[in-house]
Amino acid sequence: MQAITVPDHDFPLHDLSATRRLEQRALAAVPPGTLVARAGLSTARLALALAPHARHCWVLAGPGHNGADALEAAFHLARSGRCVTASVFARDGQTIVPAAAQSLQRARDAGANILLNDPAAPHGCALALDGLLGIGSARPIEGAMAQAVHGFNAIEGTRLAVDVPSGLDAGTGATAGAAVAQATDTLTMLNLKAGLFTGVGRAHCGRIWLAPLDVQDDEPPQAWLAGRALHMAMRTPRGHAQHKGSYGDAFIVAGALGMHGAALLAARAALSAGAGRVYLSLLEGSMPLDPTRPELMQRDALWNAGAERLGTATVLCGCGGGKAAAATLPPLLEQAARLVIDADGLNALAADGSLATALRERDGRGQATVLTPHPLEAARLLDCTAAQVQADRLSAAQRLADDLKAVVVLKGSGSVVAAPGALPYVNATGNAALASPGTGDVLAGWITGQWSTHAGGGTSLQALVAATVQLHGAAADAHAQHGPLLALDLIGAMQRLA
Ligand SMILES: NC(=O)C1=CN([C@@H]2O[C@H](COP(=O)(O)OP(=O)(O)OC[C@H]3O[C@@H](n4cnc5c(N)ncnc54)[C@H](OP(=O)(O)O)[C@@H]3O)[C@@H](O)[C@H]2O)[C@@H](O)CC1
Ligand SMILES: Nc1ncnc2c1ncn2[C@@H]1O[C@H](COP(=O)(O)OP(=O)(O)O)[C@@H](O)[C@H]1O
């Protein structure tokens, strides 16, 4: 059993079809009941480690194998002297699976109190196990089972989800319905399911643990949980004889009236990421020199700098750019060798099909592009709703990457970094301290600066972007106990970790 935080190396993530194939092969390889026995024992061990002093335990069990795992854990908890109430839920006339019936009998024989369709939480319980639904969750949870979920969520203490928090789609990280378990810990079996790490997955799972159940995970992955090695690979030492020209020019094309702060955040982030020279070109109005960052240079209309300069620079367009961003895109799409498009640059792309066509054509000329949409910006690009994007973040990001021939960061909890024809990364760092204005500008600026320093290197662009997303989140994780992280402070926090 291992806690999954940020893995050292990229860790395979699976969708539910691959999980089912793995489960079926594993079941066929061992005597009946073996996997449920292992899952139940692992669950009980983790529960006792997390809540060693809990006397009263509440085990919620559904009619399927998720319930069987939980009832097997109930047996071990009762046998270890805990006072266990196991509430089993099944529709009228529905029989629970044989494995669950066997474990139920063992739990009852060990002294557990068994209740049927009773959602009331026992008094004084400091440990609750959610084994209502796992990967077989098929529709919104209703009725007594929904009440039990709400009762589970109200337990003050350890709330351990078995395999998957009930009501969460472990393939996508979306939920159906209002009743969704809110765990403090989730012990997932056999493999890591992608939906535990993106969308609302992390919010519902709490800490994530993996119990491989002695089964070799040999299914090809559908995505990677980004490992720490990605960021480490970006930490290339500066050569003794290198000069600022070795780290490239970054052009920041951003900042409409009233939004100059966004432009400044992006420019400062590009500078802190290591770009050799950072030039800021405001889209509207003017701004005095930044006295605390005199290294920044301002230039007019850099989008008209011509093919020679744009062809060697790394350019960011967007970041508080307002409607003025649209007019800068035709020359940038045609001439910029390396182009990051954020915020209003993305909205301009969504509004004008000819810009999207120009974006697609860049790939054929060997010009690379990074797009950094949040879910609503992604929805505009995909011509759907933000809810539809959030319903399956991995495939939304992949569709955008494949269609627009760009590396795409779909931002939010568990950011997805997709590239055409490659498996997406899911980022394992970050938290709601990042839900503060301007942190996206910092991300876009840092990607631009980082890319500028690696412009000639062999690192894959997708890996470089995923490494920056990881660093951005890690800075927030280091700050997690201190409330929102202000965007300017985020730059300093990233610099300390870089
Ligand atoms: N097989 C093994 O040995 C291993 C299995 N493992 C474990 O098994 C889990 C998968 O088990 P599973 O396939 O039985 O599905 P599971 O999540 O229990 O749910 C299906 C049941 O729920 C019902 N149901 C569905 N939706 C519902 C709703 N909204 N509201 C109410 N009921 C609903 C549905 O019946 P229905 O009502 O749809 O007819 C069906 O009865 C997996 O997550 C892991 O924990 C692993 O430990 C490895 C070893
Ligand atoms: N709950 C969260 N968990 C992880 N990352 C988050 C969370 N909320 C926001 N973020 C990150 O913060 C950044 C916000 O970007 P964005 O929405 O563009 O904000 P802004 O436009 O104000 O800069 C993104 O990188 C996003 O992934």
Plain-language structure description:
It comes from Azohydromonas lata. In the N-terminal section; belongs to the NnrE/AIBP family. Homotetramer. The structure is a single chain. This protein is of the alpha/beta class and 498 residues long. The protein has two domains: 223 residues, 3-Layer(aba) Sandwich (Rossmann fold); 270 residues, UDP-N-acetylmuramoyl-L-alanine:D-glutamate ligase, CATH 3.40.1190. Helices cover 40% and strands 17% of the residues. It contains 18 helices and 21 strands. The strands form three sheets. Strands 2-12-21-20-19-18-17-16-13-14-15 form an eleven-stranded mixed sheet, with helices on both faces. Strands 1-11-10-7-6-3-4-5 form an eight-stranded mixed sheet, with helices on both faces. Helix 5 links the parallel strand 6 and strand 7. Helix 3 packs parallel to helix 4, helix 11 packs parallel to helix 13 and helix 16 crosses helix 17. The longest helix has 17 residues. The protein is elongated and about 80 Å long. 56% of the residues are buried. The structure holds ligand NPW and adenosine-5'-diphosphate. The site of ligand NPW has 28 residues, from helix 1, helix 2 and helix 3.
